[in-house]
Structure formats: C-alpha cells, structure tokens
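Fill-in record for AraC family transcriptional regulator.
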Amino acid sequence: MMVSYRSGETSGRGTAHPHGGRITAQPSASALGPPIRREVIPPHPQASVRVLTHDFPSEICGWGYHPEYEIHLITKTRGSFIAGDHIGTFAPGHVSMMGPNLPHDWVSDLAEGQVAVDRDAVIQFSDEWIRRASENLPELAEVSELLQRSTRGLVFSGATAWRAAETILACVHSHGVEQLGHLFKLLALFAHAPVDEYELVASEWVGRPTDAASRDAGEAGLSYILDNLTGDIRLSTAARLAYMSEPTFSKYFKTATGMTFSNMVKKLRIAYARRLLDTSDDSIAQIAERSGYHNMANFNRQFLAEVGSTPSAYRRLESDQKPPPELFSLGLRAPSS
C-alpha cells in the first residue's frame, strides 16, 4: 500500500538541531499533527543563514510558513507540493525558492513506515539580513527583483535547476565565508535565470492566512485529504476534525488555501493519478481505483478537465509531449509577469 506521509506520521528516528545541520524524523503529538504553524527559525550567533538537511517524514515537515526566504532542494522521492494556491508534483532535483510567509509543503509518496533520509536540503535567511547586506554590498541590488518574485514561490527548471542543485549541496557541505560564497552564487544564478527556466506558481493575493481559524481549517483539511487520498473523503469529516460547521470550514479552508475543499481533493488525486500513469504499468481502471475514483466515467472526466487529455491518451504521449505538472495542477494560475 502506498500512503502519503506528512509531518505527524513519523518513524521516531533521530533528533532536531535548533540552528542547522541535519534533522531526522520525530514522533508527533497527535495523529492529525499541529495546525499550520508559523515556524520559528532562531538566529545563530555565528551564522547569517540556516543551512540543513532533513529526512521525510520529520518534525520540520508540514504545511507551514515563516518570515524567512527558503531555498529548497528535493534529493529523492516523488510526491506533491503546495505553495500558496498552487499544487504541483516534484521529483529528485526539484529546486524552488519560497518567499516570506508563503505557506508550503512537500509530501512524498512513500510505503508505510518508509523514511527518506536526507530528502531535503534547505537554505533559509531573513529579509532583514539580506536587506542590511545590500546596504553594504551594492552588488546585491541585482537580486532585489528575485526577492520580490519569490513572494509568489519560484520553481526552477532546466540548466538553472541542475546548477542550483549542485550549489545548494555545496552550501550544505561548507561553512563560514565559503558557505556564504555559495549562497551568493546561488542568488546570482536565480536572479539571471532565463525566463523559460523559472515559474511563479502562487497567485499574489494568497499565501498569508493570518487568522487562526483559516490556519486551523487549512491544516485540518489538508491533513485529512492527504491521509485519505485513495479512500473516501467527506467535507463533513474534515469540518469535524477542524471543530467547525461545514459552511464555516469551507469558508476558512478557501481563505487559507485559495481553493475550495472539493477542488483541492480533485487536484491532488489527479496529480497522483498522473504520477501512477508515468511510473507504473497498472491498468487505467486500477489507477483510477488507487487514486480514489470508483467511477471510471467520473475519473476520465476529471482527468480530462485537469490535464487536457484522457488518461489513456496521456499515457500514449511521449514524455516531451506531456504537460508539465505545474500546468495541470494549478488552481488559480498566476500571471507570468
């Protein structure tokens, strides 16, 4: 059985380091996991930035936000990621940059009990630090537009992505001035990336659920969907888990995620079905069942609406003919400029 592990479903391995290094899986306090949280990233007296690797699942994973910029590399596994109102898929080599306070999460498809060791390589730095550095280093002015773009989430591709992956790992394995040098190289690479090698993924107006009710509805709903993606999913159950009435839950869930509960379920299920079509030899009927669809006509209709082709037609396409995950998984398509 394949399940999507999230924060709160861990193997009980390892410990967390408060300032950087490597974070491994930790047991959770509850099956549902904590509500969407403002992650507190404590400053280190001897480091300007936080650089770390961590396993999946681990206590650091989960739908959350923080005031720091985050550069993120996936080194192994496939799955779905959420950034604001965007739902996409990832594979090894996935490189992204998330701006301050943009909720995000990467959820791997793992066998039950499996842990992906060092799945993530992460670099985090504060807006205050990069702004103050820019005051003393005028050369950093060239990254100001990059910082602004990142507030909507950036996903890189092509040569930019693989060069960035190498530089992120170099940053992980270095210290001091050498580490900062790799970070500045990385920012320059992103700032000068060709327009066809990056995409802004989230809409400008989403990504900052500041009230507790929206945060709780978003986390409870996403946890429930991801834990039951291949089974029966009901709005009434999600609302009960959030301790809300159905109308109240629906309102706050959309505020938090940028889309309705039913649309989120559909997009995550179709994204999962697409990966099964790409990576397995299962029949279309088996994939529909594994993706939570028990009616083939409904599955074909939903897949066609999201991807632009039927599942069977999609499977016959060559890899370079298939739409990128970002094109069919986005709810509210962000404009390109």
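KEY FINDING: Confidence is low (pLDDT under 50) at residues 1-20, 23-37, 326-337.
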